[in-house]
Specification:
The chain is mainly beta. Helix content is about 10%, strand content about 55%. The chain has two helices and ten strands; from the N terminus they run ααββββββββββ. It has a ten-stranded antiparallel β-barrel. The longest helix is centred in the N-terminal third of the chain and has 11 residues. It starts with a helix and ends with a strand.
């Protein structure tokens, strides 16, 4: 008697790909964007470049894939990022790689309203005092920014490295 009841419950349960879809946790990000990348904010003369970025749901909406390509450069800067919601603990993860080196940056943090503070998980060989953070600030449905900063003293002092300013072009 219990076995048929369990089978009925399992067969009637909705098919879910993952506990929290990234598109549901980060609905503002899905779409097409123009991006102003400002690099070298810690230098006397920062430089900037315009880029295009597209966020699309992947793997049954479990992840968002962001593909970014600068409009200029030889070769142009490219980035590939995966954004996800980490199930029951509610954390947000971002895996980041770009065309200027082949290493992966893995960031994790929590969303608090319109702000997501993502801290890079330590890489092998990285000094324990080095901390990289990306602060995502969602201004509204059509604008958000990611500011990257570095601490070499365990988070006591910070250097702002870059800011990427996103403006929606299409949903």
């Amino acid at each position: 008697m219990i076995l048929p009841l369990l089978l009925a419950l399992v067969s009637s349960a909705p098919d879910r790909a993952c506990p929290i879809e990234a598109a549901a946790a980060l609905p503002e990000l899905v779409g097409t964007w123009q991006v102003l990348q400002i690099h070298g904010l810690d230098r006397p003369r920062p430089d900037s470049v315009r880029a295009s970025s597209v966020f699309i749901p992947e793997l049954q909406r479990c992840l968002l894939r962001e593909q970014l390509r600068a409009d200029a450069g030889n070769p142009p800067y490219e980035g590939l990022m995966f954004w996800g919601a980490n199930g029951p603990d509610g954390s947000i993860q971002r895996v980041f790689a770009h065309s200027q080196h082949g290493g992966f940056g893995v960031y994790q943090g929590r969303r608090d309203g319109n702000t997501i503070l993502l801290r890079q998980l330590p890489a092998p060989g990285q000094p324990s005092t080095d901390v990289v953070e990306n602060q995502v600030l969602i201004a509204d449905r059509d604008r958000f920014a990611i500011t990257s900063r570095l601490s070499i003293d365990g988070g006591r002092t910070w250097r702002v490295l870059s800011r990427w300013e996103y403006r929606r072009t299409r949903s």
